[in-house]
Amino acid sequence: MTDTEQTLGEGAACHTAHDTSLVTSAQATVHCLIGCVIGEVAGLMIGVGFGLGVWVTIGLAVFLAYVSGFTLALIPIMRRESLSLTAAMKVVWLGEAVSIAVMELAMNGVGYWMGGMHAKSLADPVFWIAMAAAIPAGYLAAWPVNHWLLKRQLKRCH
Questions:
Q1: What residues does each domain of the chain span?
Q2: pLDDT truncated to tens, each residue of the chain (158 aa)?
Q3: Are 39 and 61 in contact (CB under 8 A)?
Q4: What is the pTM for the complete model shown?
Q5: Are 28 and 61 in contact (CB under 8 A)?
């Protein structure tokens, strides 16, 4: 095993440390999307449900997306490689931070543009229609970014 492969380890979605196929980046993006959507939906539901302002709702959704996204990245690496939280964070922070930022920008941009964050309640169809459009937008925005990050070994598969 090369030094790079030892440093990067073997990810669940990656076959080798140098696996930069579109399939691998698509799988990494799905994993990132799951984490982002958990936090994003929770934040938007809290914000809209309690009638918080649009920018407070966006801030809460982004914060929770980062929390859940990083959690889904850190736990498998900590378990698989027996790393502490600090050591695992050093491994994943850059790739996750960039990937989540791009995904959140796209998701919140679409959600805001479509009026989902302006919905009067969670029962308002515009909230769910905007969410249904925002999720694929986040995926499509982050996929090429994740491909680039993996190719340059700035992101880990997990």
A1: 18-149
A2: 333 333 344 344 454 445 568 888 888 899 889 999 999 999 999 999 999 999 999 999 999 999 999 999 999 889 999 999 999 998 889 889 999 999 999 999 999 999 988 898 999 999 999 999 999 999 999 999 999 998 888 776 65
A3: yes
A4: 0.82
A5: no
